[in-house]
Amino acid sequence: MESKTEEVADALNGVDIDEDVVNPWEVSSTSPTGVDYDKLIKRFGSSKIDDDLIARFEKVTGHKAHHFLRRKIFFSHRDLYQILNAYEQGKPFYLYTGRGPSSQALHLGHMIPFIFTKWLQDVFNVPVIIQLTDDEKFYWKDFKLEDTKKLAYENAKDIIACGFNPEKTFIFTNFTYMGQCGAFYENISKISKCVTFNQIKGIFGLTDSDHIGKISFPPFQAAPALSSSFPFIFGEGAKVPCLIPCAIDQDPYFRMTRDVAPKLGFPKPALIHSVFFPALQGAMTKMSASDDNSAIFMTDTPKQIANKVNKYAFSGGQATIEEHRAKGGNCSVDVSYQYLKFFLDDDEKLEEIGKKYSSGEMLTGELKKILIGIIQPIVLEHQTLRKNTSDEILKTFTNLRSLK
Length: 404
Fold this sequence. Notes:
The protein has 404 residues and is α/β, with parallel strands linked by helices. It is built from 21 helices and nine strands. The longest helix is centred in the C-terminal third of the chain and has 24 residues, at 364-387.
């Protein structure tokens, strides 16, 4: 019988146990409704975000839960209760999230962790650390080093346009920060010494034929979860807890980090995981930055958004109007409805749309029209903020400095 450790390793490698493949570099499902997140929670050993935890969140913060929480878009966690307890007791913590720059512009799916992290920053009034792993994309993609550095620069402006507070936010790229802060490299070295080659292969599914850049990378993503990597923010040798909002495919990095952190005298990082944002063509199709028609990008014009939704958004409707009126649509596979779950804040309106579409009262074309009306102004507002993000503003986020 396979041991528990081997089962976890298989899960982290994305082994095809239940047909879903989930790891930091590949996410796929054979189900039209996408990944089975209940099974994934069991496989990864995380905890489900339930109504009790949401109620606890609202009581401690005094804020209504974000609709990402209410709708279980952020559905899984590790030690979120501990972060809430620390906040209630007036103890400090910080937020840490990141992006692997692989495209000139972000798409809607890329925006989810940053929208939520910005909201958490506002609610908790805490510092945010944002890592851009330009080195990772150099290792895993067919990019020149100069390309990944340029993409990180462009992605940073998109991230800033989400509205982060410059007095409480530090953004860095790995290639640049390695030469700026010795404490960062010291923590990378300490983490590296605690993890064996076999463990890296087991956790991330790497093989003997992978180049050593891939094998050496995981500590770089782990190190920002140790607050002493930022002595100019938290102080020399600081041991401040952190909360990491991310998609659940990034969990293997932080399972490793949570194993290592106590050995180095640091608290385990807490995590809050999001579901995956579906491609326009449906949950069984991969959203790719290289396929312009698989996603809505933050650079798309209103006309492009309308064309993409009308032409490519997978429909849960029936083959004919008559059949649809009789049987209704399937909201669980309809991409337009799924996108509304992410971007329509009004719970009552969303429920009304779901009922009308499921009963056949609302047609697919009407549903798509509602989505277009929601997405277009969101993207236009982002484009305005992005246009106003100058190089000087970027420097205010990337300069080494203390944060409030």
